[in-house]
Amino acid sequence: MSDSRRALPAVHVLLELEGVRALAERVPRAVIASAVRAVVAEARDDVSRAPSTDGAWTEAIAARVDAGERPTLQPVVNATGVVLHTNLGRAPLAAAALTAIGEVARGFSSLEYDLATGSRGSRHTHCAGLLRELTGADDALVVNNCAAALVLTLNTVANGRDALVSRGELVEIGGSFRVPDIMARSGARLVEVGTTNRTYADDYRRACTSQTGAIVSVHRSNFAVEGFVAAVAPRDLAELAGAAGVPLLYDFGSGLMLDLSPWGLRGEPTARDAVASGASLVVMSGDKLLGGPQAGIILGRADLIAALRSNPLARALRVDKLTLAALHATLALYRDPARAVAEIPALAMLTTPVDALRARATAMVARLAARGVSARVNDTESTVGGGAFPTARIPSCAVVLDGSGDPITLERALRNGALPVIGRISDGALWMDLRGVESTDDDRLTQAILEAAA
Fold first, then answer.
1. Are the CB atoms for 291 and 344 separated by under 8 Å?
2. pTM of this prediction?
3. How far apart are CA 15 and CA 32, in angstroms?
4. Cβ(293)–Cβ(287) under 8 Å?
5. Do domains 77-87+347-453 and 93-336 have the same CATH topology?
6. What is the pLDDT of residue 172?
7. Judging by DSSP bridges, how do beta strands 139-143 and 424-426 pair with one another?
8. Region 93-336: CATH code
9. HSE-up (13 A, CA, CB side) for residue 40
10. Of 109, 302, 329, 353, which has the highest C-beta tally within 10 A?
11. Tens digit of pLDDT for each residue in 43-67?
């Protein structure tokens, strides 16, 4: 019995096909050869699915070349209904931040050069002034993320000493990383106080010894505990820490700079609230509710911030010029709160009236129907994401694709399209929640749906 794989064309034959040779105009020949070998290998594994004509071989090879050239980090449309989706990069940047990145990236910059004196400067000064102004902190420092900020603060004030933290605050954050594991890497000795659901001030007092280096308060930003619970507020912990002669480190995480209660989002402290609590050092994220780039922001006492800056770990955890440019531009928008809400995408998405989303969904469904794609408008609820406002449900509106074929197949087609679209499958249909979709992307989302449905 003959082996059908013998009939498959050789690699050198496929390389000479006119359409394959034309690929050399845009990619190196070595890339094309690798794609040809991959396509032939797939055909050998399943001869029944092997291309049957020169044109089909050319199409398969070109598709493999295109897939290899496409970066794995791509822009996507976030139609999941989770606004600050960690897997999708959290907060999109404001136009002002993008402009600032471009201006700094295209040439040299004053990253560590003092223009006033003509001498060496420090990158740590660029955002500190705005952070002091906006939060009321004595001083500020920016590192590469909030976990790094926690490690740096603990390593500086409690290395080799005890760090007291409530058992109810030993949370797990994204990617299976746990606060106690992160704290342990700082060199501090973790001392748990209280219980999972109830911790009192006396629990901290009894645990304080001559070996205590710090008290840590971790805001439970990504979950809620209800019922028979008790916790010590940061303001009360600050008094307790002061009496014990140790600093209070307050990890409040979200980076919220404005009170969002006018839009129904309540219960999350702002950065100014956190500083006003009396904590010695406050750590928060830059890419969550603040709406900027990934960064860890540390606010607090000037003497402690100075100690953090001189810690060798600060160099290992420092941020680059692009992050500083984006963060500074984002912070500058907060000088005018109304402008911040309008121009920082994360805040604009969270505060958009549901009627506006419904109008956009209705227009999109009409355009789809005109092209033969069945869809409907449906009210739904979105979440904040990013480990903030864990119980909040925000009224939203979605385009529901329930008459355009199998939702699993359609979801896969949208996810693997030229512009990847990430939705969610619910009740046997594919939902495109518009809460996390900028209005400027409506046309592109519509076209992506049309291509996937085809």
1. yes
2. 0.90
3. 8
4. yes
5. no
6. 66
7. unpaired
8. 3.40.640.10
9. 18
10. 329
11. 888 887 888 898 999 999 998 998 8
3-state secondary structure of 164: strand
CATH topology of domain 77-87+347-453: Aspartate Aminotransferase, domain 1 (3.90.1150)
Hey, which bits of 5-68 come out as E strands? none
Tokens at residue 350, please?
Answer: 């969270």
Range of lowest pLDDT (11-20, 312-321, 393-402): 11-20
| b/e map 13-27, b = 16+ CB within 10 Å | ebbebeebeebeeee
pLDDT tops 70 at residue 103? yes
- With 0-12 CB in 10 A as exposed, 13-18 as middle and 19+ as buried, what is 301? middle
For strands 424-426 and 113-114, give the pairing. Answer: unpaired
How much is the average pLDDT of 391-411?
89
What are the CA-CA distances from residue 116 to residues 6, 113, 120, 121, 353 (Å)? 75, 9, 10, 10, 46
Is a pLDDT exceeding 70 seen at residue 25? Answer: yes
**What's residue 246's pLDDT?**
96
Rounded to 5°, angle at Cα 173 from 289 and 412:
80
Alpha-carbon gap, residue 452 to 434, rounded angstroms: 18
- Number of residues written out for the chain: 454
pLDDT at 168: 83
* DSSP string over 58-109: HHHHHHHHHHHHS-SS---EE-SSEEE-GGGTSSPPPHHHHHHHHHHHTS--
Question: How many other β-carbons are positioned within 10 Å of the β-carbon of residue 244?
Answer: 18
Task: State pLDDT tens for residues 331-356.
Answer: 999 999 999 999 999 999 999 999 99
pLDDT tens, position by position, 277-319: 999 999 999 999 999 999 999 999 999 999 999 999 999 999 9
**Amino acid, res. 52:** S
Mean pLDDT of 420-426: 95
- Per-domain residue ranges of the chain: 7-69, 77-87+347-453, 93-336
Task: List the one residue out of 297, 304, 360 whose CA is nearest residue 326.
Answer: 297
Q: Looking at residue 184, what is its pLDDT?
A: 81
Instruction: Indicate if the alpha-carbon torsion angle 388, 391, 393, 399 is positive or negative.
Output: positive
CA 192 – CA 206 distance, rounded (Å): 12
| pLDDT at residue number 175 | 55
Question: Given this model, what pLDDT does residue 9 score?
Answer: 86
38-44 — which CB contacts under 8 Å span 24+ positions? 38/64, 39/14, 39/64, 40/8, 40/9, 40/11, 40/14, 43/5, 43/8, 44/5, 44/8
Q: Provide DSSP, 380-443.
A: EEEEEETTBSTT--EEEEEEEE-SSS-HHHHHHHHHTSSS-EE-EEETTEEEEEGGGS-GGGHH
